[in-house]
Design brief:
By secondary structure, the protein is mainly α. It has three helices and no strands. The protein has helices spanning 15-20, 26-33, 40-46. The longest helix is centred in the middle third of the chain and has 8 residues, at 26-33. The radius of gyration is 16 Å and the shape is globular.
Length: 64
């Protein structure tokens, strides 16, 4: 994205991204991503998997 200067680059064929969004095809992902034009490459930086949760319990810094 940065090296080529392409802010609209978007991997519609990416299987992991399609699975995370529960979509069956690249066309479905393409349609969903249309609203992010012309900044679809930057949208990838904002996306985080919802299945990743913070660790349970107090943080190591809170034990000081």
């Amino acid at each position: 994205m940065r090296a080529l200067g392409e802010p609209d680059a978007f991997p519609c064929g990416d299987l992991a991204l399609r699975r995370a969004l529960k979509l069956d095809s690249a066309e479905q992902l393409q349609r969903r991503a249309e609203c992010w034009r012309p900044w679809r490459a930057y949208a990838m930086y904002l996306w985080t998997p919802s299945k990743i949760a913070p660790p349970a319990g107090p943080s190591p810094q809170s034990k000081k």
